[in-house]
Predict the 3D structure of the following.
Amino acid sequence: MATYPEDCLYTREHEWIRVEDDVGVIGITDYAQEALGDIVYVELPSVGDHFSQGEPFGNVESVKAVSELYMPVSGEIVEVNEDLAESPQLVNEDPYGDGWMVKIALSDPTELETLMSASEYEEYVREEKEK
Amino acid sequence: MMETPCHVSRDEALIFERSRPGRTAYSLPPLDVPTVPLETWIEARFLRTDPVAGMPEVSEVDVIRHFTRLSRWNYAVDVGMYPLGSCTMKYNPKMNERVARLEGFALHHPLTPEELSQGSLEVLKMLEELLCEITGMAAGCLQPAAGAHGELTGLLLIRACLEARGDPRRKVLIPDSAHGTNPASAAICGYSVQTIPSNERGLIDLDALRRAADRDLAALMLTNPNTLGLFEEEIEEITRIVHEAGGLVYMDGANMNALVGIARPGEMGVDVLHLNIHKTFSTPHGGGGPGAGPVLVTAELEPFLPVPRIVRRADGRLALEEDRPRSIGRVRAFYGNFGVLVRGLSYILTMGPEGLREVAETAVLNANYIAYHLKGTYEIAYPGPIMHEVVFSDKRQRAYGVRNVDIAKRLIDYGFHPPTMSFPLIVPGALMVEPTETECREELDLFIAAMKAIDRECRENPELVRTAPHRTRLGRLDEVAAARHPVLRWRPQASPSRAEASPEGAPSERPLSPEP
């Protein structure tokens, strides 16, 4: 069963963000990794790149498809998960932990209000599955 | 425990692994001229000093048996139904092969002067004109070597046209059901890509299109019928919206098999499209290629077409015209994949207008026949009136722990090539079936029976499906390991010292070994 940690906020494109002191850690959800299947490559931006909310910032490639990653909030990349280059399977194994993708310095924390809570996202996923 | 010895015909090694030192497929008479050292003719720095590693030393019978055995492992349109959705794997009539092998075509050198090339030029001119007639477009270029190459050429034409209008724009709109090559082509062409969502019926969401059709809109790329096998009923409104915003409409002709002889993109407001000769017009692909992806355009875009253009001189003779100042330039050496184009023309002429119309009618009928008989068994995500292909999903079978990939692999055991999987992306667990017009009712019935049998297995013995295929020489291959750690080059199992000495001797480059 997919999991939905309470300390994260979620996008409709199945990214999560966990904010600590104006820095947000971003990854894809358990549901997303499950739907994608075995991930074989993750393409991430560089430290210092700027993105606005909703903008594509990279992509994940599984044996089925290549999918874009969308920024949950605006800001500047301060760190990327270098381990994913050699070990993309971390996204499958631990999507909310070792499989994190980027850290971003938020430029507008009020954007967080547009994201879904864990319970809202769980409901959203249930509706997606019904489709 | 002793293992049963396995004959090589059941466990084929690579030709390199068959190699035995000194074994040859020839026997030459003794040398009757003085021997000259190679260094006399070629500078020493160009000569390799290590042994020519890995070149197979084999006999004639080794070679013949090796490749004949491999050919018997193969699956092809000449063996059975190949319902690989979106690929139009129709039978390739042998008449096309015969025509392409005529000496005048097959041996014609591309640098032969124009006056000696009138026959070949006539073939190309005739094909261009027939494709224009079939699509309702004004002019075309046959040079692109594949569909994606056609997309790139088409987008370069759009860019040239918008720049000539003095209104270059930056945005290309692409529906979420599109082929992945569409956004890739747009991005390579320097455009930013915006995705247009599909509505609940699986068609372009017109409101979303209207919102996105702004002053920065360069083009909409759409496939019609789309990858769900659905015809964009609002196509005239769609092209009107794009044109009013100042953009152009690109149509991906991958699914032209549903329209050929019946509906013409030029009359729907399409400005540029590419065709896949290797899909709609029956030339070999999927390993048997190469392809051909001609681009057809409206009169406004004609001046920008790639050079050379085939033009008819005043005296009636054909020429390759290079001097076209507004052209986007060359896109391919010489004039495309000529042999493939000859086959395409052969197909069009042997089918004739009525035959081509029947192609589309039968292709649509066959897909609907399958959809009708399987809709009670497999979920159809977007059940609108379908055209030439039908997209099922594994939604019902997932309850038994079986996924689309398992169903596809199990179909191999029933003698069919698997359908396209996990595409389009908007259908989770997609199984995309395109029977094409060349399957008879008996073959379709066998396919339907196989799909129903697999559904029964999903409920009664899901493990059988999850571990398929069972009747092939190799079982399920490890696609994940192949993608994560690709071994791109075979290397002899050489002594470790040489592998270490070579800078390319990375530890990941293991010799391939088949799964047990």
About this structure: Chain A has one domain: 9-126. Chain A has a mean pLDDT of 93. The beta strands of chain A are 9-10, 15-20, 23-28, 39-43, 50-51, 56-62, 66-70, 75-80, 102-106. Residues 9-126 of chain A form a domain with the OB fold (Dihydrolipoamide Acetyltransferase, E2P) fold (CATH 2.40.50.100).
